[in-house]
Protein backbone atom coordinates (compact mmCIF):
# COMPACT_ATOMS: atom_id res chain seq x y z
CA UNK A 1 0.00 0.00 0.00
CA UNK A 2 1.25 3.45 -0.83
CA UNK A 3 -0.13 6.36 1.15
CA UNK A 4 0.48 10.08 1.13
CA UNK A 5 3.23 11.47 3.31
CA UNK A 6 5.14 8.25 3.28
CA UNK A 7 8.26 7.46 1.36
CA UNK A 8 7.60 5.65 -1.91
CA UNK A 9 10.68 5.96 -4.08
CA UNK A 10 12.96 6.32 -1.09
CA UNK A 11 11.16 3.67 1.00
CA UNK A 12 13.95 1.13 0.61
CA UNK A 13 16.84 3.58 1.10
CA UNK A 14 17.40 2.90 4.81
CA UNK A 15 16.53 -0.76 4.65
CA UNK A 16 19.08 -1.48 1.96
CA UNK A 17 21.79 0.57 3.59
CA UNK A 18 24.13 -2.37 4.16
CA UNK A 19 24.22 -3.25 0.48
CA UNK A 20 21.88 -1.50 -1.95
CA UNK A 21 22.56 -4.18 -4.57
CA UNK A 22 21.47 -7.09 -2.32
CA UNK A 23 18.81 -8.68 -4.46
CA UNK A 24 17.32 -10.91 -1.73
CA UNK A 25 16.75 -7.94 0.54
CA UNK A 26 15.38 -6.03 -2.45
CA UNK A 27 12.88 -8.80 -3.24
CA UNK A 28 11.70 -8.91 0.36
CA UNK A 29 10.89 -5.20 0.11
CA UNK A 30 8.47 -5.47 -2.85
CA UNK A 31 11.36 -5.68 -5.28
CA UNK A 32 10.44 -7.29 -8.61
CA UNK A 33 6.78 -7.51 -7.52
CA UNK A 34 6.08 -5.13 -10.41
CA UNK A 35 7.84 -7.31 -12.97
CA UNK A 36 6.15 -10.46 -11.68
CA UNK A 37 2.78 -8.78 -11.94
CA UNK A 38 3.35 -7.27 -15.38
CA UNK A 39 4.04 -10.62 -17.03
CA UNK A 40 0.59 -11.79 -15.91
CA UNK A 41 -1.09 -8.72 -17.35
CA UNK A 42 -2.35 -7.85 -20.78
CA UNK A 43 0.08 -5.35 -22.32
CA UNK A 44 -2.58 -2.87 -23.35
CA UNK A 45 -3.91 -2.98 -19.78
CA UNK A 46 -0.43 -1.97 -18.62
CA UNK A 47 -0.53 1.04 -20.95
CA UNK A 48 -3.96 1.96 -19.58
CA UNK A 49 -2.60 1.70 -16.06
CA UNK A 50 0.26 4.05 -16.98
CA UNK A 51 -2.20 6.55 -18.42
CA UNK A 52 -4.27 6.38 -15.25
CA UNK A 53 -1.16 7.01 -13.16
CA UNK A 54 -0.42 10.32 -14.96
CA UNK A 55 3.32 9.84 -14.57
CA UNK A 56 4.95 12.88 -16.13
CA UNK A 57 8.56 12.41 -17.27
CA UNK A 58 10.88 13.12 -14.38
CA UNK A 59 13.86 14.22 -16.45
CA UNK A 60 12.50 17.71 -16.84
CA UNK A 61 10.26 17.90 -19.88
CA UNK A 62 7.24 16.40 -18.04
CA UNK A 63 6.12 14.45 -21.11
CA UNK A 64 3.47 11.89 -20.09
CA UNK A 65 5.18 8.51 -19.77
CA UNK A 66 1.99 6.70 -20.74
CA UNK A 67 1.89 8.54 -24.05
CA UNK A 68 5.55 7.83 -24.75
CA UNK A 69 5.14 4.13 -23.95
CA UNK A 70 2.02 3.85 -26.08
CA UNK A 71 3.81 5.51 -29.01
CA UNK A 72 6.66 3.01 -28.78
CA UNK A 73 4.26 0.11 -28.29
CA UNK A 74 2.61 0.77 -31.63
CA UNK A 75 5.81 1.82 -33.41
CA UNK A 76 6.81 -0.51 -36.24
CA UNK A 77 10.11 -2.35 -36.32
CA UNK A 78 12.11 -4.68 -34.15
CA UNK A 79 14.32 -4.67 -32.18
CA UNK A 80 13.19 -1.83 -29.95
CA UNK A 81 15.65 -0.42 -27.45
CA UNK A 82 15.22 0.76 -23.88
CA UNK A 83 17.44 3.61 -22.73
CA UNK A 84 17.76 5.08 -19.26
CA UNK A 85 18.92 8.68 -19.17
CA UNK A 86 21.22 8.95 -16.15
CA UNK A 87 23.16 11.87 -17.60
CA UNK A 88 21.94 14.09 -14.79
CA UNK A 89 23.68 17.36 -15.56
CA UNK A 90 21.30 20.10 -14.44
CA UNK A 91 23.20 22.11 -11.84
CA UNK A 92 21.41 21.77 -8.52
CA UNK A 93 20.18 18.25 -9.25
CA UNK A 94 21.41 15.04 -7.66
CA UNK A 95 18.28 12.92 -7.34
CA UNK A 96 19.25 10.35 -9.98
CA UNK A 97 22.63 9.96 -8.35
CA UNK A 98 20.95 9.30 -4.99
CA UNK A 99 18.54 6.79 -6.51
CA UNK A 100 21.33 4.88 -8.20
CA UNK A 101 23.39 4.95 -5.03
CA UNK A 102 20.63 3.68 -2.74
CA UNK A 103 18.25 1.61 -4.83
CA UNK A 104 19.74 0.71 -8.22
CA UNK A 105 17.59 -2.38 -8.63
CA UNK A 106 14.42 -0.28 -8.67
CA UNK A 107 15.67 1.37 -11.87
CA UNK A 108 16.72 -1.97 -13.31
CA UNK A 109 13.29 -3.42 -12.51
CA UNK A 110 11.59 -0.48 -14.25
CA UNK A 111 13.77 -0.96 -17.32
CA UNK A 112 13.11 -4.70 -17.32
CA UNK A 113 9.36 -4.05 -17.28
CA UNK A 114 9.90 -1.85 -20.33
CA UNK A 115 11.98 -4.64 -21.88
CA UNK A 116 9.09 -7.06 -21.41
CA UNK A 117 6.49 -4.62 -22.72
CA UNK A 118 8.31 -3.94 -25.97
CA UNK A 119 10.01 -7.34 -26.47
CA UNK A 120 13.29 -5.48 -26.37
CA UNK A 121 16.55 -7.45 -26.36
CA UNK A 122 18.70 -4.71 -24.89
CA UNK A 123 18.58 -1.83 -22.46
CA UNK A 124 21.22 0.84 -21.93
CA UNK A 125 21.93 2.99 -18.91
CA UNK A 126 23.74 6.12 -20.05
CA UNK A 127 25.36 7.52 -16.95
CA UNK A 128 27.37 10.71 -16.80
CA UNK A 129 31.12 10.52 -16.49
CA UNK A 130 31.16 12.52 -13.28
CA UNK A 131 29.25 9.67 -11.59
CA UNK A 132 32.00 7.15 -12.27
CA UNK A 133 31.92 5.87 -8.72
CA UNK A 134 28.30 4.82 -9.27
CA UNK A 135 29.22 2.56 -12.17
CA UNK A 136 30.51 -0.02 -9.72
CA UNK A 137 27.25 -0.04 -7.79
CA UNK A 138 25.20 -0.36 -10.98
CA UNK A 139 27.42 -3.06 -12.39
CA UNK A 140 27.11 -5.05 -9.17
CA UNK A 141 23.33 -4.68 -9.21
CA UNK A 142 23.22 -5.91 -12.81
CA UNK A 143 25.31 -8.96 -11.92
CA UNK A 144 22.95 -9.72 -9.03
CA UNK A 145 19.92 -9.39 -11.27
CA UNK A 146 21.51 -11.70 -13.85
CA UNK A 147 22.37 -14.30 -11.22
CA UNK A 148 18.79 -14.30 -9.95
CA UNK A 149 17.55 -14.59 -13.55
CA UNK A 150 15.84 -11.20 -13.60
CA UNK A 151 18.08 -10.41 -16.58
CA UNK A 152 19.49 -12.69 -19.23
CA UNK A 153 17.67 -15.46 -21.02
CA UNK A 154 14.18 -16.77 -20.29
CA UNK A 155 13.63 -14.31 -17.47
CA UNK A 156 11.23 -15.61 -14.77
CA UNK A 157 11.20 -18.87 -16.70
CA UNK A 158 9.29 -17.28 -19.57
CA UNK A 159 10.56 -18.72 -22.84
CA UNK A 160 11.76 -16.00 -25.15
CA UNK A 161 11.88 -13.25 -22.52
CA UNK A 162 15.53 -12.39 -23.16
CA UNK A 163 16.74 -9.02 -22.04
CA UNK A 164 19.91 -7.49 -20.70
CA UNK A 165 21.20 -4.07 -19.72
CA UNK A 166 24.52 -2.37 -20.55
CA UNK A 167 26.13 0.61 -18.86
CA UNK A 168 27.49 3.36 -21.09
CA UNK A 169 29.59 6.19 -19.70
CA UNK A 170 29.20 9.80 -20.67
CA UNK A 171 32.18 12.11 -20.45
CA UNK A 172 31.13 15.54 -19.37
CA UNK A 173 28.73 17.00 -21.91
CA UNK A 174 25.54 18.56 -20.59
CA UNK A 175 23.93 18.39 -24.03
CA UNK A 176 24.02 14.57 -23.89
CA UNK A 177 21.08 14.79 -21.49
CA UNK A 178 19.07 15.69 -24.59
CA UNK A 179 17.70 12.33 -25.63
CA UNK A 180 18.78 12.28 -29.28
CA UNK A 181 22.27 13.56 -28.39
CA UNK A 182 22.40 10.84 -25.78
CA UNK A 183 21.62 8.19 -28.40
CA UNK A 184 24.37 9.54 -30.67
CA UNK A 185 26.75 9.31 -27.76
CA UNK A 186 25.78 5.66 -27.12
CA UNK A 187 26.50 4.97 -30.78
CA UNK A 188 30.02 6.24 -30.20
CA UNK A 189 29.60 9.59 -31.88
CA UNK A 190 29.96 13.07 -30.49
CA UNK A 191 26.86 13.86 -28.50
CA UNK A 192 25.16 16.43 -30.65
CA UNK A 193 21.35 16.41 -30.96
CA UNK A 194 19.61 15.06 -34.04
CA UNK A 195 17.05 16.92 -36.05
CA UNK A 196 13.57 15.91 -34.89
CA UNK A 197 11.15 14.65 -36.17
CA UNK A 198 11.33 11.68 -36.59
CA UNK A 199 10.40 10.89 -33.03
CA UNK A 200 12.85 8.63 -31.20
CA UNK A 201 10.03 6.14 -30.63
CA UNK A 202 10.08 5.62 -34.42
CA UNK A 203 13.73 6.21 -35.29
CA UNK A 204 16.02 6.07 -32.29
CA UNK A 205 19.11 4.14 -31.31
CA UNK A 206 20.71 2.52 -34.38
CA UNK A 207 17.68 3.92 -36.22
CA UNK A 208 15.38 1.52 -34.31
CA UNK A 209 12.34 2.47 -32.20
CA UNK A 210 13.67 3.56 -28.81
CA UNK A 211 12.31 4.47 -25.42
CA UNK A 212 14.30 7.09 -23.52
CA UNK A 213 13.20 7.76 -19.95
CA UNK A 214 14.82 9.33 -16.93
CA UNK A 215 16.15 7.33 -13.96
CA UNK A 216 13.39 8.52 -11.64
CA UNK A 217 10.70 7.74 -14.24
CA UNK A 218 11.89 4.13 -14.46
CA UNK A 219 11.99 3.84 -10.67
CA UNK A 220 8.32 4.87 -10.62
CA UNK A 221 7.20 2.18 -13.07
CA UNK A 222 7.28 -0.80 -10.63
CA UNK A 223 5.31 1.27 -8.11
CA UNK A 224 2.59 1.96 -10.68
CA UNK A 225 2.33 -1.68 -11.71
CA UNK A 226 2.37 -2.90 -8.11
CA UNK A 227 -0.07 -0.42 -6.63
CA UNK A 228 -2.16 0.45 -9.66
CA UNK A 229 -2.37 3.67 -11.63
CA UNK A 230 -5.16 5.18 -9.54
CA UNK A 231 -3.30 4.71 -6.25
CA UNK A 232 -0.20 6.23 -7.82
CA UNK A 233 -2.10 9.22 -9.10
CA UNK A 234 -3.61 9.74 -5.65
CA UNK A 235 -0.11 10.38 -4.33
CA UNK A 236 -0.01 13.53 -6.43
CA UNK A 237 -2.55 15.80 -8.05
CA UNK A 238 -5.04 15.62 -10.90
CA UNK A 239 -2.48 16.72 -13.52
CA UNK A 240 0.50 14.74 -12.28
CA UNK A 241 0.57 11.64 -10.09
CA UNK A 242 3.09 10.25 -7.66
CA UNK A 243 5.77 11.68 -5.46
CA UNK A 244 8.72 13.75 -6.61
CA UNK A 245 12.31 13.68 -5.55
CA UNK A 246 13.43 17.24 -4.98
CA UNK A 247 16.90 18.67 -4.46
CA UNK A 248 17.07 21.65 -2.17
CA UNK A 249 20.20 23.77 -2.47
CA UNK A 250 21.33 27.33 -1.90
CA UNK A 251 20.38 29.39 1.12
CA UNK A 252 18.16 26.95 3.00
CA UNK A 253 19.10 25.34 6.30
CA UNK A 254 18.54 21.75 5.27
CA UNK A 255 20.07 21.25 1.87
CA UNK A 256 19.66 17.85 0.30
CA UNK A 257 17.31 15.35 -1.27
CA UNK A 258 13.70 15.00 -0.17
CA UNK A 259 10.73 13.05 -1.43
CA UNK A 260 7.49 15.02 -1.46
CA UNK A 261 3.97 14.29 -2.62
CA UNK A 262 3.11 16.38 -5.64
CA UNK A 263 0.75 18.99 -4.25
CA UNK A 264 2.78 19.77 -1.13
CA UNK A 265 2.63 23.51 -0.31
CA UNK A 266 5.78 25.20 -1.60
CA UNK A 267 6.16 27.17 1.63
CA UNK A 268 6.24 23.90 3.58
CA UNK A 269 9.12 22.78 1.41
CA UNK A 270 10.97 26.04 1.98
CA UNK A 271 10.27 26.69 5.62
CA UNK A 272 9.17 23.59 7.52
CA UNK A 273 11.81 21.82 9.58
CA UNK A 274 10.93 18.60 7.81
CA UNK A 275 12.26 20.02 4.55
CA UNK A 276 14.18 23.22 3.91
CA UNK A 277 13.92 24.73 7.39
CA UNK A 278 13.96 28.32 6.15
CA UNK A 279 16.83 30.63 5.38
CA UNK A 280 20.31 29.55 6.39
CA UNK A 281 21.72 33.06 6.30
CA UNK A 282 19.13 34.85 8.40
CA UNK A 283 18.21 36.98 5.41
CA UNK A 284 14.81 36.68 3.72
CA UNK A 285 14.57 34.30 0.79
CA UNK A 286 14.25 36.11 -2.51
CA UNK A 287 13.86 33.71 -5.41
CA UNK A 288 13.82 30.05 -6.37
CA UNK A 289 15.28 28.65 -9.55
CA UNK A 290 13.16 25.63 -10.44
CA UNK A 291 14.31 22.52 -12.23
CA UNK A 292 17.92 23.33 -12.99
CA UNK A 293 19.57 26.02 -15.10
CA UNK A 294 17.07 25.56 -17.92
CA UNK A 295 14.10 26.20 -15.65
CA UNK A 296 12.16 29.31 -14.69
CA UNK A 297 12.69 31.58 -11.69
CA UNK A 298 9.98 32.41 -9.16
CA UNK A 299 9.90 35.16 -6.52
CA UNK A 300 9.39 33.64 -3.07
CA UNK A 301 7.16 36.51 -1.93
CA UNK A 302 4.67 35.82 -4.72
CA UNK A 303 4.35 32.09 -4.12
CA UNK A 304 2.73 32.00 -0.70
CA UNK A 305 -0.21 29.86 -1.79
CA UNK A 306 1.57 27.90 -4.47
CA UNK A 307 1.46 24.11 -4.36
CA UNK A 308 4.50 22.16 -5.49
CA UNK A 309 2.82 20.21 -8.27
CA UNK A 310 2.92 20.33 -12.04
CA UNK A 311 -0.34 22.26 -12.31
CA UNK A 312 0.40 24.41 -9.25
CA UNK A 313 3.66 25.61 -10.77
CA UNK A 314 2.32 25.91 -14.32
CA UNK A 315 -0.34 28.27 -13.00
CA UNK A 316 2.50 30.54 -11.89
CA UNK A 317 4.43 30.20 -15.16
CA UNK A 318 6.86 27.90 -13.40
CA UNK A 319 7.79 24.27 -13.88
CA UNK A 320 9.07 21.36 -11.86
CA UNK A 321 11.75 20.41 -14.37
CA UNK A 322 14.26 18.03 -12.88
CA UNK A 323 13.11 18.71 -9.32
CA UNK A 324 15.89 21.11 -8.39
CA UNK A 325 15.05 24.05 -6.16
CA UNK A 326 17.91 26.51 -5.93
CA UNK A 327 16.86 28.93 -3.23
CA UNK A 328 18.57 32.32 -2.99
CA UNK A 329 18.32 35.00 -0.35
CA UNK A 330 17.99 38.73 -0.95
CA UNK A 331 21.74 39.32 -1.01
CA UNK A 332 21.93 37.81 -4.49
CA UNK A 333 21.44 40.18 -7.38
CA UNK A 334 19.38 38.62 -10.12
CA UNK A 335 21.80 39.93 -12.74
CA UNK A 336 24.78 38.29 -11.05
CA UNK A 337 22.83 35.08 -10.82
CA UNK A 338 21.78 35.14 -14.47
CA UNK A 339 25.37 35.82 -15.49
CA UNK A 340 26.27 32.54 -13.97
CA UNK A 341 23.41 30.79 -15.76
CA UNK A 342 24.38 32.37 -19.09
CA UNK A 343 28.02 31.38 -18.64
CA UNK A 344 26.89 27.82 -18.09
CA UNK A 345 24.94 27.71 -21.34
CA UNK A 346 27.64 29.46 -23.36
CA UNK A 347 30.00 26.75 -22.14
CA UNK A 348 27.64 23.83 -22.73
CA UNK A 349 26.18 24.76 -26.11
CA UNK A 350 27.29 21.96 -28.41
CA UNK A 351 27.82 24.30 -31.35
CA UNK A 352 25.74 22.42 -33.87
CA UNK A 353 23.20 25.15 -34.54
CA UNK A 354 24.05 28.81 -34.93
CA UNK A 355 21.30 30.45 -32.83
CA UNK A 356 22.46 28.59 -29.75
CA UNK A 357 26.21 28.70 -30.44
CA UNK A 358 26.30 32.46 -31.08
CA UNK A 359 23.18 33.39 -29.14
CA UNK A 360 24.32 32.00 -25.80
CA UNK A 361 27.50 34.06 -26.11
CA UNK A 362 25.60 37.25 -27.03
CA UNK A 363 23.28 36.71 -24.06
CA UNK A 364 26.25 36.33 -21.76
CA UNK A 365 27.86 39.50 -23.15
CA UNK A 366 24.66 41.45 -22.63
CA UNK A 367 24.35 40.25 -19.05
CA UNK A 368 27.98 41.14 -18.36
CA UNK A 369 27.21 44.63 -19.62
CA UNK A 370 24.27 44.84 -17.23
CA UNK A 371 26.45 43.56 -14.44
CA UNK A 372 29.04 46.27 -15.00
CA UNK A 373 26.21 48.82 -15.23
CA UNK A 374 27.48 49.79 -18.66
CA UNK A 375 24.21 49.22 -20.48
CA UNK A 376 22.71 52.03 -22.54
CA UNK A 377 19.07 52.73 -23.42
CA UNK A 378 17.93 50.17 -25.96
CA UNK A 379 20.15 47.39 -24.64
CA UNK A 380 17.29 45.84 -22.74
CA UNK A 381 15.16 45.64 -25.88
CA UNK A 382 18.04 44.10 -27.83
CA UNK A 383 18.54 41.63 -24.99
CA UNK A 384 14.89 40.64 -24.96
CA UNK A 385 14.76 40.08 -28.68
CA UNK A 386 17.97 38.04 -28.47
CA UNK A 387 16.23 35.83 -25.90
CA UNK A 388 13.33 35.36 -28.29
CA UNK A 389 15.65 34.53 -31.21
CA UNK A 390 17.56 31.91 -29.29
CA UNK A 391 14.41 30.31 -27.88
CA UNK A 392 12.58 30.14 -31.18
CA UNK A 393 15.41 29.26 -33.54
CA UNK A 394 17.51 26.77 -31.60
CA UNK A 395 17.28 23.18 -32.74
CA UNK A 396 17.09 21.35 -29.43
CA UNK A 397 15.86 21.69 -25.89
CA UNK A 398 19.13 23.16 -24.68
CA UNK A 399 18.95 26.31 -26.78
CA UNK A 400 15.20 26.53 -26.46
CA UNK A 401 15.42 26.76 -22.69
CA UNK A 402 18.44 29.06 -22.27
CA UNK A 403 16.19 32.08 -21.93
CA UNK A 404 13.60 30.58 -19.57
CA UNK A 405 15.18 31.89 -16.38
CA UNK A 406 15.95 35.26 -17.97
CA UNK A 407 12.46 35.85 -19.29
CA UNK A 408 10.92 35.13 -15.90
CA UNK A 409 13.49 37.33 -14.15
CA UNK A 410 12.76 40.27 -16.46
CA UNK A 411 9.14 40.08 -15.35
CA UNK A 412 9.88 39.62 -11.65
CA UNK A 413 12.72 42.06 -11.09
CA UNK A 414 12.52 44.73 -13.82
CA UNK A 415 13.92 47.33 -11.44
CA UNK A 416 17.25 45.53 -11.18
CA UNK A 417 17.66 45.59 -14.94
CA UNK A 418 16.57 49.22 -15.06
CA UNK A 419 19.25 50.16 -12.52
CA UNK A 420 21.88 48.63 -14.79
CA UNK A 421 21.08 51.03 -17.61
CA UNK A 422 22.72 54.41 -17.83
CA UNK A 423 19.87 56.59 -19.06
CA UNK A 424 22.22 59.53 -19.76
CA UNK A 425 23.81 57.87 -22.77
CA UNK A 426 22.57 57.71 -26.34
CA UNK A 427 20.14 55.02 -27.33
CA UNK A 428 21.32 51.92 -29.11
CA UNK A 429 19.02 50.45 -31.74
CA UNK A 430 18.98 46.82 -32.69
CA UNK A 431 20.63 46.28 -36.08
CA UNK A 432 18.28 44.25 -38.21
CA UNK A 433 19.50 42.37 -41.21
CA UNK B 1 50.53 7.31 -20.42
CA UNK B 2 53.86 6.30 -19.10
CA UNK B 3 52.46 3.97 -16.48
CA UNK B 4 50.34 1.86 -18.81
CA UNK B 5 52.00 -0.84 -20.87
CA UNK B 6 50.76 -1.61 -24.33
CA UNK B 7 49.29 -4.84 -22.98
CA UNK B 8 47.36 -3.02 -20.29
CA UNK B 9 45.99 -0.60 -22.88
CA UNK B 10 44.98 -3.46 -25.13
CA UNK B 11 43.30 -5.15 -22.21
CA UNK B 12 41.08 -2.12 -21.68
CA UNK B 13 40.27 -1.99 -25.39
CA UNK B 14 39.46 -5.71 -25.36
CA UNK B 15 37.11 -5.20 -22.43
CA UNK B 16 34.88 -3.51 -25.02
CA UNK B 17 35.73 -5.99 -27.82
CA UNK B 18 37.46 -3.11 -29.63
CA UNK B 19 33.97 -1.97 -30.59
CA UNK B 20 34.10 1.44 -32.34
CA UNK B 21 30.79 2.33 -30.72
CA UNK B 22 32.45 1.98 -27.34
CA UNK B 23 35.39 4.22 -28.23
CA UNK B 24 34.21 6.79 -25.71
CA UNK B 25 34.09 4.27 -22.86
CA UNK B 26 37.50 2.95 -23.88
CA UNK B 27 39.02 6.43 -23.81
CA UNK B 28 37.47 7.26 -20.45
CA UNK B 29 38.72 4.01 -18.91
CA UNK B 30 42.19 4.52 -20.36
CA UNK B 31 42.42 8.03 -18.99
CA UNK B 32 41.28 6.98 -15.53
CA UNK B 33 43.70 4.05 -15.48
CA UNK B 34 46.68 6.26 -16.24
CA UNK B 35 48.30 8.52 -13.67
CA UNK B 36 48.88 11.22 -16.31
CA UNK B 37 45.18 11.97 -16.55
CA UNK B 38 45.13 12.52 -20.30
CA UNK B 39 45.13 10.65 -23.60
CA UNK B 40 48.48 11.00 -25.35
CA UNK B 41 48.75 10.81 -29.12
CA UNK B 42 50.26 7.33 -29.13
CA UNK B 43 47.30 6.01 -27.15
CA UNK B 44 44.83 7.83 -29.37
CA UNK B 45 46.51 6.24 -32.40
CA UNK B 46 46.39 2.82 -30.78
CA UNK B 47 42.67 3.14 -30.03
CA UNK B 48 41.99 4.38 -33.55
CA UNK B 49 43.83 1.44 -35.06
CA UNK B 50 42.31 -1.17 -32.78
CA UNK B 51 38.69 -0.06 -33.15
CA UNK B 52 39.14 0.71 -36.83
CA UNK B 53 38.39 4.42 -37.09
CA UNK B 54 40.61 7.35 -38.08
CA UNK B 55 42.70 9.23 -35.56
CA UNK B 56 40.65 12.32 -36.35
CA UNK B 57 37.48 10.59 -35.13
CA UNK B 58 39.20 9.77 -31.83
CA UNK B 59 40.31 13.38 -31.44
CA UNK B 60 36.79 14.52 -32.27
CA UNK B 61 35.64 12.62 -29.19
CA UNK B 62 38.49 13.86 -27.02
CA UNK B 63 37.84 17.49 -27.89
CA UNK B 64 34.05 17.24 -27.57
CA UNK B 65 33.82 15.55 -24.18
CA UNK B 66 35.04 17.72 -21.33
CA UNK B 67 36.30 14.87 -19.16
CA UNK B 68 38.76 13.69 -21.81
CA UNK B 69 42.01 15.66 -21.89
CA UNK B 70 44.73 15.87 -24.49
CA UNK B 71 47.34 17.58 -22.37
CA UNK B 72 49.22 16.42 -19.34
CA UNK B 73 47.42 17.14 -16.09
CA UNK B 74 48.65 17.96 -12.62
CA UNK B 75 49.11 15.13 -10.12
CA UNK B 76 46.02 16.37 -8.28
CA UNK B 77 43.29 17.99 -10.32
CA UNK B 78 41.02 19.80 -7.89
CA UNK B 79 37.54 20.16 -9.31
CA UNK B 80 35.31 22.90 -8.03
CA UNK B 81 31.83 23.85 -9.15
CA UNK B 82 31.25 26.98 -11.20
CA UNK B 83 27.50 26.79 -11.57
CA UNK B 84 24.99 29.13 -10.01
CA UNK B 85 23.73 26.98 -7.10
CA UNK B 86 27.24 26.61 -5.70
CA UNK B 87 28.62 29.99 -6.72
CA UNK B 88 26.10 31.74 -4.50
CA UNK B 89 26.24 29.37 -1.57
CA UNK B 90 29.85 29.20 -0.57
CA UNK B 91 31.94 28.16 -3.56
CA UNK B 92 33.93 31.45 -3.81
CA UNK B 93 35.62 30.47 -0.55
CA UNK B 94 37.19 27.50 -2.35
CA UNK B 95 38.43 29.33 -5.43
CA UNK B 96 39.75 32.23 -3.33
CA UNK B 97 41.52 29.90 -0.89
CA UNK B 98 43.05 27.78 -3.63
CA UNK B 99 44.33 30.82 -5.47
CA UNK B 100 45.91 32.07 -2.28
CA UNK B 101 47.40 28.76 -1.14
CA UNK B 102 48.62 27.56 -4.52
CA UNK B 103 49.52 30.95 -5.96
CA UNK B 104 48.11 30.13 -9.39
CA UNK B 105 44.98 31.04 -11.31
CA UNK B 106 42.27 28.63 -12.33
CA UNK B 107 43.43 26.18 -15.01
CA UNK B 108 47.11 26.87 -14.30
CA UNK B 109 49.34 24.13 -12.97
CA UNK B 110 51.59 24.81 -10.00
CA UNK B 111 55.31 24.84 -10.88
CA UNK B 112 55.89 21.50 -9.13
CA UNK B 113 53.23 19.88 -11.31
CA UNK B 114 51.26 18.81 -8.24
CA UNK B 115 48.11 20.90 -8.42
CA UNK B 116 45.66 22.38 -10.85
CA UNK B 117 42.17 23.55 -9.98
CA UNK B 118 39.36 24.25 -12.33
CA UNK B 119 35.67 24.91 -12.26
CA UNK B 120 33.32 22.45 -13.89
CA UNK B 121 29.55 22.69 -14.23
CA UNK B 122 27.96 20.61 -11.48
CA UNK B 123 29.21 17.34 -10.08
CA UNK B 124 25.96 16.70 -8.20
CA UNK B 125 27.38 17.72 -4.82
CA UNK B 126 25.33 20.91 -4.65
CA UNK B 127 24.13 20.17 -1.11
CA UNK B 128 27.74 19.98 0.14
CA UNK B 129 29.16 23.30 -1.06
CA UNK B 130 31.87 24.41 -0.42
CA UNK B 131 33.53 21.23 -1.67
CA UNK B 132 36.52 20.05 -3.65
CA UNK B 133 36.34 16.94 -5.80
CA UNK B 134 39.45 14.96 -6.63
CA UNK B 135 38.91 12.02 -8.97
CA UNK B 136 35.78 10.34 -7.53
CA UNK B 137 36.14 11.68 -4.03
CA UNK B 138 34.24 14.69 -2.75
CA UNK B 139 35.59 16.63 0.23
CA UNK B 140 32.36 18.25 1.46
CA UNK B 141 31.41 21.31 3.51
CA UNK B 142 34.91 22.74 3.73
CA UNK B 143 36.10 25.60 5.89
CA UNK B 144 39.10 27.78 5.05
CA UNK B 145 41.27 25.83 7.53
CA UNK B 146 40.17 22.51 6.11
CA UNK B 147 41.20 23.61 2.63
CA UNK B 148 44.68 24.53 3.89
CA UNK B 149 44.84 21.18 5.66
CA UNK B 150 43.68 19.26 2.60
CA UNK B 151 46.38 20.81 0.41
CA UNK B 152 49.13 20.08 2.89
CA UNK B 153 47.82 16.51 3.33
CA UNK B 154 47.89 16.04 -0.43
CA UNK B 155 51.44 17.44 -0.58
CA UNK B 156 52.47 15.00 2.14
CA UNK B 157 50.98 12.16 0.08
CA UNK B 158 48.36 11.30 2.64
CA UNK B 159 45.82 10.32 -0.02
CA UNK B 160 47.70 7.75 -2.08
CA UNK B 161 44.50 6.54 -3.70
CA UNK B 162 43.84 9.91 -5.31
UniProtKB/TrEMBL annotation, chain B:
Binding site for [2Fe-2S] cluster: 81, 86, 122, 126
Cross-referenced InterPro entries: NuoE-like, NuoE_dom, NuoE_N, Thioredoxin-like_sf
Molecular functions per Gene Ontology: 2 iron, 2 sulfur cluster binding; metal ion binding; NADH dehydrogenase activity
Transmembrane portions of the chain: none
Cited Pfam families: 2Fe-2S_thioredx
The UniProt record lists the keyword Iron: yes
The family this protein is said to belong to: Belongs to the complex I 24 kDa subunit family.
Protein keywords: 2Fe-2S, Iron, Iron-sulfur, Metal-binding
Cofactor remark from the record: Binds 1 [2Fe-2S] cluster.
Needed cofactors: [2Fe-2S] cluster
Cited Gene3D superfamilies: Glutaredoxin (3.40.30.10), NADH-quinone oxidoreductase subunit E (1.10.10.1590)
Entry protein name: Putative NAD-dependent formate dehydrogenase, gamma subunit
PANTHER family: NADH DEHYDROGENASE [UBIQUINONE] FLAVOPROTEIN 2, MITOCHONDRIAL, NADH DEHYDROGENASE UBIQUINONE FLAVOPROTEIN 2, MITOCHONDRIAL
CDD domains in alphabetical order: TRX_Fd_NuoE
Amino acid sequence: MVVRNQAVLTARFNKLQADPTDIDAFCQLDGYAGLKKVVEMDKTAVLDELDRAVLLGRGGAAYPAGKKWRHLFYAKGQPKYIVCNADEGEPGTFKDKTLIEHDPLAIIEGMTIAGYMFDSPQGYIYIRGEYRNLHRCLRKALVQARTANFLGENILGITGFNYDIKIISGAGAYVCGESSALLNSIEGKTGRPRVKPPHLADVGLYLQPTLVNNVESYANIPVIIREGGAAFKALGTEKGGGTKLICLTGHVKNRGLFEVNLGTPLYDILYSEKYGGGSSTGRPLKFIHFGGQSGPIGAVAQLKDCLYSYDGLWANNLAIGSGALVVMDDSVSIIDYLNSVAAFFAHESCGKCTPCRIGTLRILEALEKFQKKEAVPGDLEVFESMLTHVTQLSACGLGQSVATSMVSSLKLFPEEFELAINRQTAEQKEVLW
Amino acid sequence: MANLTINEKNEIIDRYQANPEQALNILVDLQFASTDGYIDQKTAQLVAKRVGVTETRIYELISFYAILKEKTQARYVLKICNSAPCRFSGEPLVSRSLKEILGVNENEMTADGLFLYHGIPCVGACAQTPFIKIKDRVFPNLTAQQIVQLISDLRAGRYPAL
